[in-house]
């Protein structure tokens, strides 16, 4: 079979023949299953002389058996007060021989690192960079290979705050701030369209707000069907679907989706009948002359955090079916109501909510045959529904022409009040952007900005300030002021 040898030849061409010993003989890269043996004395260079500022690192005295390995048997590398497995540390090398400077992709595979690799010497430069030399390095790298770690990149103690630490889990760098209606009427922000399109600082602020609060308004958007595409592309690539690259939300006869009618649309999330629903949704208001049609939003994270441990566990572990079977399409998928992941501190955190009553499949729980489990789910599901649809959680806001709302489709539930399609017009233009695209934009723009600076919002412009001031001028009614004129 020619393919494996051709593949290996292409791979080895990056660094030359890694198995060539230079004299015609070959060197076999040690298997991960081989015995890893360490010594009890400091590791030194072959000539026994350390270069300036180089420090030999102690390792544990043990023999680690591949099928009976214990943590205390593994030789660790100490840098400051942090400990690292030598293979992971070698794997993280960022030198130009290990990482292509143009593609930024690795030039070797992790299993190629010998399991008995050891640190030969370590040097800390004046600027804080760390250089490490290895014993038993990957074949082909040679004794002159030096692993380079920029200052702060191995900072494990401050990994939650140090954005330069490669030890940091960058999956979720922004804290979620759950909100109810009262809080969001004080904190919902808007950004001017021209600032958003021209200023990276404004785009960084927008991406930070979307990751933190899940909801944002863009104001001053030009009256063009292309505007929503421009706003989305400013973040990154658009998520296409069978609805199209962009799509219209307005009342049409014989609508293939309840959103394309004038009737009340309950709280939901879009496209849960897909394996990977879109992360963020944009809706640009082009026309808003119809009576009614206020947008509804609710933070599902806020509703979920108040559940009992019993109900939350049920909603995390019971798959719910969603489907769309219409207009020549048939989509179907199951998701639990609550999706969780472990944080860097080891605690479970909510990552996504899946809730879309209009798009539930005909049979809700196809993977739950046990009657008692069904009863338990129905109780937990009812509790969650009551919490998320509680008026305290419900933010009502009437989008004006020239405004575009962006929200997290995996967190923020959205809906709409009924409107009069005969007496006026309500026309929104929509688009989707995946969560990875928003997070990528945030990381790329914010890599040099401390997280605490992003959370201060010195330049914040609040949506409801204008509405409250208008209400004060129009009526002294305390009840109107107390409601904040939402809608």
From TrEMBL:
Task: Name the Gene Ontology molecular function terms of this record.
Answer: 2-oxoglutarate-dependent dioxygenase activity; metal ion binding
**Which PANTHER family does the UniProt record give?**
GAMMA-BUTYROBETAINE HYDROXYLASE-RELATED, OXIDOREDUCTASE AIM17-RELATED
Biased composition of type Polar residues is found at 22-41, 58-67
UniProt key word Oxidoreductase: yes
Cofactor(s) required for function per UniProt? Fe(2+)
Q: Name one Pfam family in it.
A: GBBH-like_N
Give the record's GO biological process terms. carnitine biosynthetic process
| Record GO cellular component, one term | mitochondrion
Name the source's superkingdom. Answer: Eukaryota
Cite the InterPro entries for this sequence: AlphaKG_dependent_hydroxylases, GBBH-like_N, GBBH-like_N_sf, TauD-like_sf, TauD/TfdA-like
Keyword field:
Dioxygenase, Iron, Metal-binding, Oxidoreductase
Task: Show where the TauD/TfdA-like domain sits.
Answer: 191-432
Q: Which family does it belong to?
A: Belongs to the gamma-BBH/TMLD family.
Instruction: Name the segments for region: Disordered.
Output: 15-67
Which SUPFAM superfamilies does the record cross-reference, listed alphabetically?
A: Clavaminate synthase-like (SSF51197)
Protein name (Swiss-Prot/TrEMBL): Gamma-butyrobetaine dioxygenase
Residue ranges of the Gamma-butyrobetaine hydroxylase-like N-terminal domain? Answer: 82-136
